[in-house]
From TrEMBL:
Residues of the DUF8129 domain: 10-58
Name under which the protein is recorded: DUF8129 domain-containing protein
Region (Disordered): 60-115
Biased composition range(s): Low complexity: 70-81
Recorded superkingdom: Bacteria
Pfam families the UniProt entry points to: DUF8129
Amino acid sequence: MSERTDLPLPDYDHLTTGDLAGRVRTLPAGPLRELIAHEEAHGNRLPVLEVLRTRLADVEDGAPLSGGDPAAARPEQAPAPDGGSDVSEAGAQVNNQPLRHGVAGQTPNRDIRGR
């Protein structure tokens, strides 16, 4: 039984089913079997097992492996360099909605930066 850090996909437990389907396309049969055993012992999630078992069957039937590193983070999931949000205040959209008159509490904040 593998520890989570020893899995073929280090971030396995944090992948969505869709991301997992793309990432397992780079794995040969052995690592796929390892992920199946881990999933059966831990989460036992049917949709995840279906993705893994289907891919294993495809590989065993001769399906080619995709190129790339299965452990590489996808750009849209990579954290910001400083560990925070990659959204800057300078790029924030300014609220330019017209003021609503006559309805208490429904006038939007005019400046999201608190000025």
